[in-house]
Amino acid sequence: MNECLNATVICPKNSDCYDTPGSYRCVCNRGFRNAAPPTAPRPFCQAFEFEFFAITFVFSFFKVEFSTLKFEIAAYKFEFSLFKFEFKHINECLNIFSYTCGMYQHCVNDEGSYHCECNYGYYATQINPLVCQDIDECNNATVRMCSSDAKCTNTPGSFYCTCNVGFYGDGKFCKNIDECNMNLHNCNTFGIKMKMICIDKVPGFLCQCPTGFRWNPSSRDCEDIDECVIPYMNNCTMFHAKCRNTYGSFACDCLRGFMRDPTCPAVLCPCVNINECQNYTACAPNAVCQDMTPGYLCTCNMGYVGDGYRECRGMMPGNHSAYIHFK
């Protein structure tokens, strides 16, 4: 007979009925223990008792932990004590009261200790490593990163660069200011009939009269230069030409017997000899034309006499005449 199926059999709270040969048994559920006396006919189910106690001591280089664990299972009590000792690394740099560094220094954590290093822009002196001195980056070419067109200014722990006058940029990279294209000049205030023009320089700019003019301080104006009276300012003579002054410039007029080189695309071109003999009317009939530099020569043919240019008339054999002619 299974007594657990009998409604009159009731196990206490927090327990279950288990059938046994000829009887039954009440067993506490998981998480509960029998707190009744050993002679009691039925159990009294009570929750486990659990107690934990721990103390931790932390020192600069080690940690000590002491803990106690107590718990009861059913009618038994258990107690465990644990003592733990271990070395534990401490970062002294996290606590300003745990390290000592000098001015312009910072703490660097080590294994079991720490050391001090100079801040960026400073260096430790050989006399006292706790004293950090400012690095003058402006006098140190390996550290200074200013442009060659900038001024370096040293500051405590650092430096800064400023572009020189006539340049712009962040100091590390400086670019020339084109005052002429940016209209940052006053050249157009000089001159009356002819104004000065702006010439960009590196750095700055220059005001000067246009080519072919020069400044007259008396009239305070740019006046025309007569290049023809200044030999080195014109090269007409080497072109077989004569200099003729123009406003702001000059021109080379070819001499008699020469003409401008038709193959030259420039403004000033050399003068080349004119081959008058290509014009079959240069000499008189019965005459031979010979080109000269400059001019040309007309010679009457054998058996004729005359200047060769206007006429050649018949004569005794063996006589001839010749004249050099210029157009």
Automatic annotation (TrEMBL):
User: Per the record's keyword annotation, is Signal included, yes or no?
Assistant: yes
Q: Which UniProt keywords apply?
A: Disulfide bond, EGF-like domain, Glycoprotein, Repeat, Signal
* Residue span(s) of domain EGF-like: 134-175, 224-265, 273-313
Q: Which InterPro entries match?
A: ECM_structural_protein, EGF, EGF-like_Ca-bd_dom, EGF-like_CS, EGF-type_Asp/Asn_hydroxyl_site, EGF_Ca-bd_CS, Growth_fac_rcpt_cys_sf, NELL2-like_EGF
The record's annotation in PROSITE patterns points to: ASX_HYDROXYL, EGF_2, EGF_3, EGF_CA
The signal peptide annotation in the UniProt record is: none
Q: List GO molecular-function terms, semicolon-separated.
A: calcium ion binding
Q: Does the keyword rRNA-binding apply?
A: no
Q: What is this protein called?
A: EGF-like domain-containing protein
